[in-house]
Structures are given as C-alpha cells and as structure tokens.
Structure prediction request, 339 residues.
Amino acid sequence: EALANRMQAQHAEATALPPDTADTVNFGFDAEENGDLKIKSSSNDPESSILIADENNESEEYTVFVFDLDNQDQADSLVTDITVGITSSTDGDDFIRRATLVVDGDEYDGDINADTIEFTDLDTEIAGDDRVEVELMITLVSDAPSATATFTIAGADIDAEGVDSGDDANVTGSQSSETHTVALTGVAVEAGSTSISSNDTETVGTFRIEFEITALEDDQYIFKGADNASSSTSGVIYTIYAGNTATTSFYGTASDLLQSTADDSDNGDYYVIQSGDTETFTLTVTLDPTATGLYFVELNAVRYDPDNAEDTSAIDDDTYTVPNDADFQTSAQSLQAGS
Prediction:
C-alpha cells in the first residue's frame, strides 16, 4: 500500500510540470515558382545565306534564325510575347513581307516594323526542365531592295509567366543570327577574310580583302580593274583611309590588283561568274604613303554586267553597293612616310 501511494504521488507531480516547448513544428507553403528561361544557341541556326527576292511576287519562305528556350526551373512557364530585333542596312518592313515564328511546333504571325518583329498573344507552355526550339521564317516583298540583315533576341524581348502563379518568369541570355543578304537580280556579295602586312621598315603596306560574289540569274561579268574612285571600267571600288578620313592625297603611290577563282572572259578583260555560281575574289592594295599614319582599306562597291562584255563601251552597267560593314574593311596598319 505504501508503494502504491508513492507511485501515485510521483505521477501527480509529473503531470503537474509545464509542457516542454523547446521543439516546435511549423506549417506553411512554399511560394509558387514561375520558371527560369534562358536563351541558348541552336545547332539548327542557319549559316549566312543569300535570300533571293522576286521582281513580281512574294519570295519563297526562308529560315533566317533559330534559337532555343531552356526552362532551367521545375515549374512550367507560359510564353506570351516575343520581339525579334532586326539589324539591317534598310528598314525591315521595306524588305520583309511576312514573318512566322514557330515555337515548339506552334506557328505565330508577326507584326513587322522598321527594326523589330513583334509576336504577341502566344500560348506556348514550356514545361519545367524542358528545352524548346524557336524558328523565325520570313518571306520577301516583291522587288525587294538589296539589304543585309541580322536578327537578335535577348531576355528583355520575351514575356513569360508561371503557368500556376501567373507571375513574371525570369528570362535571361541573348542570341544573334548570322548575317543574311537580300538580293533581287545581278549579284550578291558576302564578306570573307582580310589581312594586312608591311615591309621591314613599315614604309609600304599591303592590304587584302577577300569576298564572294554570286551571280543570281544571268552570267555576270566583272572587269578585272579596281579603283579608289567611281569608274566605269573598274570591277570594284574601294577607299583608302588615313586615320578615319578617306583620302586620295596622303598615300603617295598606291597600286591594286583584283584576283578571282572565276574563269576569264574570251577577251581576257573580265572574270565570268556563271549563273547560280559563287566565286571568290581578292582585292590587294599596296600603299607607299608620303605621310606617316594609320591606314586601312575598305571595299565599297562591285560593278557588274550581265551581257557578254566584249564591247568595252558598254561594260559594268550595274553597281552593287557593299554594306557599311566592318567585315569589308581591313584592320589599320601603321606606316611611315617613304623616302
């Protein structure tokens, strides 16, 4: 009986102690995730190409830019708007007739402006940890002007939101297409490599510009001469720069040479590019200046003729103006005034 009374007392004392509050359990909910999209390159992005326009009709459809959207979050994202930038030698709406964006198989038509193409009201979901391809296709207006164009995309150009949350998703990264050339008839010119060199005393410099010419419809004849001024008997026109100033007075003696992989004409005065073919041309300019300074050379234009150019009185009827592009100019070479 004494043992029973003692155990009853101990139990009463234990139940009277305050509860232990050292261990707590919290209940709550994690914030909704919105997706984390990153713009990445695609192996399907096309190389530089010539987009051939039609004189009377809308052109065929060309793929000009492909990039990927990679959702690096586990939450699903909804892409609602994409704006593609246009960097071109002329306004985009002057040469683009129609633009289509394909996002993971869904097609959307774009609103074409001078320097952008806007795709709105998209409804494409990108699942968490998924990666989808985005393809831009365009057609050209009839009788499109000659142009070069590059297409770009950055995180700020894409609107996306979490499928469940409805809040803005994070979009980062950027990509650019290769530079494409728009041409109607005649020739298209694409940049190649450039190089510079000098003699041991740096009094004579040699400047080389390599480029490709494609004959779009007819055979094209390029006169073998080159000149640093507009000339009816020059195959190419170039400019010599002293510093940042175009010059014809500081260089003392200049000589030039135009070479090509193309065949010679029957009279030997021209390079002949067969219709649909592409040939490589190299302009070499050797400069012996009378003033010390930094010099470089820029290709400005190609003159061509679609006729059988045996008659020198009717040669080089047309001119292709080269885009104002650094790819068509050499680096600068420091040269000393010759003796």
Observations:
- The chain is about 5% helix and 50% strand.
- The radius of gyration is 33 Å.
- Residues 111 and 118 are 5 Å apart (CA to CA).
- Residues 2-16 form the longest helix (15 residues).
